[in-house]
Each structure stands twice: as C-alpha cells, then as structure tokens.
Amino acid sequence: MKDVLEFLGTGAADWSMNDRGPFFRRNSAALLNGAVMIDCGPHIWDYTISTYGRSVYQGVHTLLVTHPHGDHFCRESVARLADGRRLSVLGDEATVRLAGSIEGVDAVPAPLFEETVTQGYTCIPVPANHAPDQESFQARHYIITTPNGGTVFYGLDGAWFENAAWHEMCRHRYDIMVLDCTVGDKADWRLFEHNTIPMLRIMAEGIMEKGLLKEGGRIYASHLARTLHASYAVTEELLSDFGVLLAYDGLTIIF
Ligand SMILES: [Zn+2]
Ligand SMILES: [Zn+2]
C-alpha cells in the first residue's frame, strides 16, 4: 500500500485570506492518508472547500499539533474537525490543555523522544528550535511512521535542529522530510526560530551526507513567509540547486 501526503497549507503566519492570488499560501498544515492531520490552523476549511467543494476530513482520526501558535492551532477549526465524532489530539502539555476542553477531543500528551501509537501510526516528537517562551509551550517536530511503513519527518516550525533532536532523527530513514523555509535568501531576525534558504542548504547537505533519505526520498521546503521570499520560480530554482523541492498548497505526494 502507498502513503499519501497532501499539503493543506504551506505559508507562514503572515498569510491571510485577503492575500488570495497566484501562488497564494494558506497557514501550514498537512494531511497523511486522509487519517492524520498535522496542525489545524484557521485556513484548513478554506482549503478543502476551495479545492474539493466539500470536506475531505471525515476520515481524520488523529491531529498532531507541532505547537499552539495561532497559524498551527485554531480552536474553532479543531472543534469543527471533532464535530460529531472522537478526535485524538497529540501535542505538548500546553496543547493538551487547550484542546482538552473541546467536545469530541481526546487530548493525549505525547512526550518528547517517546513513541506514541495511534491507530497504527507511530509518532515520535522531538524538540523544535522554535519556542519563544519555554515556560508556555514546547514546540516539536514529528517523526511519523505509517501502518504501511512509510516515514515522514515534519519539521515546522523551527530553525537549526537541536542536537538531541538530530540524534533521534538519525535513528530513522525518511520517505519525506518537510523543513521550515520561512525566511528567504537573506538574513532576518527570524533566523533564530526559522530557517533561511542558506541554512536549508547546509541542513539538506547534512541530511544527505548522513543518508537519512530512503531511496527516492525527498525533502520539501514549506512554511514560507509572504514578505520574505522572491517569486515562486526564483525560490524553486534556489532550492533545486541543493536538491530541495518547494511545496505548495494542494501538492499531493504518493510514496
Ligand atoms: Zn507557523
Ligand atoms: Zn510558530
């Protein structure tokens, strides 16, 4: 059996519905096999209605939350997703507190570096370099293995990997890696919590040098800020120089 990863949004927090037009990006979220959603911001419903004219989320049984920033966790979106059924929501303790009071939600704290198994999907959170206030939440990336044996690394939001995260990442091999590319080809104060294109180059080379991709495995850049990037074509070209692909809303990967 094949796995399917669909990008529901590939933009950073500075995109809004008023920015519709060519190369429009919604707040970042993804859907794995129609069953596991990764992040659930305010734009996921616009995505499915604009793309399909209806919801394609009926089969979602689990929501993985990377961190509770507003572009990744929207209470109204989660409540609508859980409407009329049970939805498991995995995240850090802050996310569990936020989601736990939503009707239909089973909020599950997923400890860092530990396997949490939900309906055949194994999820290992590792710490992300993206927490403005460690007291209020602990952002995480996810290593997800599907019942078919496919493995996805979802690395939004975050900058340079923390050392402990990298060591856990090196214990796995990936079909798909999704990396933060919020900042464009320049220095910007956000580079200490998000990646620039030059940072991605070094990280991608490190990933390939370490052999973390399975045969045919691919790295995708996502979570692009509206205000920090050149055109789609220019960014795609810059990334292709070191073997990274540029994600866009609606991109669907079968692996
Ligand atoms: Zn974000
Ligand atoms: Zn964030």
Description:
This protein has helices at 44-52, 75-81, 93-100, 163-169, 197-209, 232-240; strands at 4-9, 29-32, 36-38, 62-64, 87-91, 105-109, 116-118, 121-127, 140-145, 151-155, 174-180, 213-222, 244-246, 252-254. A 7-stranded mixed β-sheet has the order 6-5-4-3-2-1-14, covered by helices on one side. It has a 7-stranded mixed β-sheet with strand order 7-8-9-10-11-12-13. The protein has one domain (4-254): Ribonuclease Z/Hydroxyacylglutathione hydrolase-like (Metallo-beta-lactamase, Chain A, 4-Layer Sandwich), CATH 3.60.15. The chain starts with a strand and ends with a strand. The chain is an alpha/beta fold. One zinc ion binds at residues 67, 69, 130, 157.
What's this, in brief?
By secondary structure, this protein is an alpha/beta fold.
Properties at a glance:
single chain; 255 residues; alpha/beta; Metallo-beta-lactamase, Chain A; seven-stranded mixed beta sheet; 6 helices; 21% helix; binds zinc ion
Would you spell out the secondary-structure blueprint of this structure?
Layout: E1 4-9, E2 29-32, E3 36-38, H1 44-52, E4 62-64, H2 75-81, E5 87-91, H3 93-100, E6 105-109, E7 116-118, E8 121-127, E9 140-145, E10 151-155, H4 163-169, E11 174-180, H5 197-209, E12 213-222, H6 232-240, E13 244-246, E14 252-254
Parallel strand pairs: 3-4, 4-5, 5-6, 10-11, 11-12, 12-13
Antiparallel strand pairs: 1-2, 1-14, 2-3, 7-8, 8-9, 9-10
The site of one zinc ion has 4 residues, from loops.
